[in-house]
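Ex. 9. Protein: TatD DNase family protein.
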Amino acid sequence: MFTDSHVHLDAPEFDADRDEVVRRAVQAGVTQMVIPAVERSNFDTVRELAHRHGLSYALGIHPLYTGRATDDDLVQLEAALLAHRHDPRLVAVGEIGLDYFVPGLDPGRQERFYATQLQLAKRFELPVILHVRRSADQLLKHLRRIKVTGGIAHAFNGSDQQAQAFVELGFKLGFGGTLTFERSLQIRRLAKDLLETALVLETDAPDIPPHWLYKTAEQRAAGEGSRNEPAELPRIGQQLAELRGWSLAQTAAITSANVQAALPRLAALA
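Predicted C-alpha cells for TatD DNase family protein:
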C-alpha cells in the first residue's frame, strides 16, 4: 500500500468532489496521505480533514504565504502545536521553507519565518516538511544550526551534493509527478541512484501533474484542466519501480516505510 507524503487535500480544486478523491485514492492503494498546512487560515481545515478521513497532517506557514503572514500567525502556530501536541495525526511542522524562484518575496522575511518554525519543530520534537525551490543551500544552513529530527525535502530538485547533505541530516527526499517526464534527467537520475532509504513518493496534488495529465499553456487557456490527485501515486510509483528495477509492491513497501521513518508518528496509524 502506498503513502502520499504530500497532498493539499484542502485545496479549492477538490471542493466539488473531495470525498470521491479520497475514495479513488484508497481504491488505487493509497492508504495514507499527509496533508500539510500552508497558512494560519487552514490549520483547522487540514486537521479536520485528517481526522475525518483517517489521514495525517502537518502545521506550518509556507514561504509563498510569508508576504501576507504576520508575527501573530507564528504565535498562533505555536498555540496550535501546543494544543494538538498529543494528536497522533499531527506528524510534522510544514509546509515550511524558502522559495527563491517566485519574484516579489522578501528573502529576509522568508528566512525569519523559516528559522522560527524550525525552532518550534525542535521544541515540539516534530520533523519538518520542507519546500525547496532554488533554496537548498540556505535551507541546509539553518538546518545545521537548528537541529530538528529530520523530515522530508518535498519535491526535491537539487544537486547530488545537496541531496547527500539533506540525507546526512536525517531527511528523505520527495519525488512525484516531475519524475514521470523523460526530460527530468537530474531528478530521474537521483531517483535511480540514491540509497533506497532516502526516497519517498508524493503527488503534491492538485499541483505537479505527471506527464499523462500535463496540459500546455494553450490547453489551459482553452479551459482544459490538469488537476493532479492522490490516486495517481501508484502510476507515479511505477515510474520509480522501472528506474530502480523494483516491483510495484516493493516500491510501495519501501517508500511507505521511508515516510514512516521520516515522520515517526505515522507508524502508529498504519
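Check your answer against this statement. The chain has one domain: 2-269.
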